[in-house]
């Protein structure tokens, strides 16, 4: 990820003397045959890339791993973890995803460990994804950051494209996906996460973020929605 940041800074330094800067490029979903997504908590999969998941599920094999139990790190009442897991499964159904696993690490206390590395290595070797999606290491949630670092380590020796999505912090976007045609599916998936949606204006916030990312398509006539990603494809070369 640091390599991407350095490249981004250097590219802007070099283009500062030119008339235009390069915008993020479309992420070509047709190039993906097997996508594996890691969600730290129930709702992250829908917030960060629900539209992209929906589009991928139409064309290739998709598997989603829910890493923590979603218990709210002490901020939710007893039984919330079970309820949120059911909300997660329902949201995936809206997005057309039926292949998933629940790993049940403690919400709010996730950290890398030999157990996690073994578990991640097993799923990577068994499912054999060419794309692995997980939060950005620049995200502001401690579980997201810890998971991102752990997965970069797990993916480092494998030929996979690492794709970072944004949830709690905007990232330095290298690519985007036009989710306009499935945006309502994404909103329906978010609505499935009823427990989490009560704690903040997520619907309004994510609509604004995806509309802002839609500006990359430079369509002045029709509002567009997009999800942004930072792609590190060193491992796929």
Question: What profile does the largest beta sheet have?
Answer: 8 strands, mixed
Content of β-strand: 15-25%
Radius of gyration: 17 Å
Mean pLDDT: 90
Q: Which ranges are low-confidence, i.e. pLDDT below 50, for 5 or more consecutive residues?
A: none
Number of strands: 8
The main sheet orders its strands as 1-7-8-6-5-2-3-4
Distance between the termini: 16 Å
What structural class do you assign from the helix and strand content?
alpha/beta
Gross geometry:
globular
Count of separate DSSP helical elements: 8
Q: Tell me the helix content.
A: 40-55%
Order of helices and strands: HEEHEHEHEHEEHHHE
Summarize the topology.
Elements: H1 2-15, E1 25-26, E2 34-39, H2 44-57, E3 61-68, H3 80-95, E4 100-105, H4 114-127, E5 131-135, H5 142-155, E6 161-165, E7 175-178, H6 183-192, H7 194-197, H8 202-213, E8 226-232
Parallel strand pairs: 1-7, 2-3, 2-5, 3-4, 5-6
Antiparallel strand pairs: 6-8, 7-8
Helix pairs in contact: 2-3, 2-6, 3-6, 4-5
Give an overview of the whole structure:
This protein is 41% helix and 18% strand. With 237 residues, the chain is of the alpha/beta class. It has an 8-stranded mixed sheet with strand order 1-7-8-6-5-2-3-4, with helices on both faces. Helix 2 (44-57) runs parallel beside helix 3 (80-95) and helix 2 (44-57) packs across helix 6. The longest helix has 16 residues, at 80-95. The protein is globular, with a radius of gyration of 17 Å. The two termini are 16 Å apart. The mean pLDDT is 90.
